[in-house]
């Protein structure tokens, strides 16, 4: 043990002014699709920063306000058609879990390491967002979180802290869903496909992991 300590001390003395190495943040890349939802061909690849800037800008503001009105009408009358029409025709979307040649599981090019969760029918979305972004979990990290177009849902994108090689997406998603329900009592939907679409809506208070802003 003394020899090991002596060897370490000797090496440290040889490089007293060695600069610290900063950890590089890997930026995930995924596919972006123009509206409507029936368009299955991506136009480009984007990053979380790109999505965050689009969400927090006014680009989707008008559509989001109309969608919220449509959802309130649905809650009042039970008619969901106006909301669904706005949702599927007026919003661009992305596939957070990877890049694709077409939006289909079999057309996956590269997995991004991201998993997109959706908590629907939430009456206090801001409170849930505040809960989510304060999570400090040993297994996953919250990368992006924003209010959905209805104002009654929360979209959140997470990554695994210690991903395993060749990890199967659907199995991992279902495991995360169960784990989050048990540990944090947060419900998420069952859409586990790797090619799941996530609409980009307006939320000026959206959260992005600060590491991407450095």
Helix and strand arrangement:
Blueprint: H1 2-14, E1 29-33, E2 44-47, H2 48-56, H3 61-77, H4 81-90, E3 93-95, E4 98-100, E5 108-111, E6 114-119, H5 125-133, E7 140-147, E8 154-160, H6 169-184, E9 198-199, E10 207-208
Antiparallel strand pairs: 1-2, 1-3, 3-9, 4-5, 6-8, 7-8, 7-10
Helix pairs in contact: 3-4
Descriptive overview:
The chain has 214 residues and is an alpha+beta fold. The chain is built from six helices and ten strands. Helix 3 runs antiparallel to helix 4. It is globular.
Unreliably modeled segments: 1-16
Task: Let me know the largest β-sheet.
Answer: 4 strands, antiparallel
Q: For the terminal residues, how far apart are their CA atoms?
A: 41 Å
Structural classification: alpha+beta
Tell me the fraction of residues in β-strands, as a range: 15-25%
Query: What share of the residues lie within helices?
Result: 25-40%
Individual helix count? 6
Integer tally of domains: 1
* Silhouette: globular
Q: SSE order, as H and E?
A: HEEHHHEEEEHEEHEE
List keywords for this structure.
214 residues; alpha+beta; four-stranded antiparallel β-sheet; 6 helices; 35% helix; globular; disordered N terminus
TL;DR?
This protein is 35% helix and 21% strand. It has 214 residues and is an alpha+beta fold.
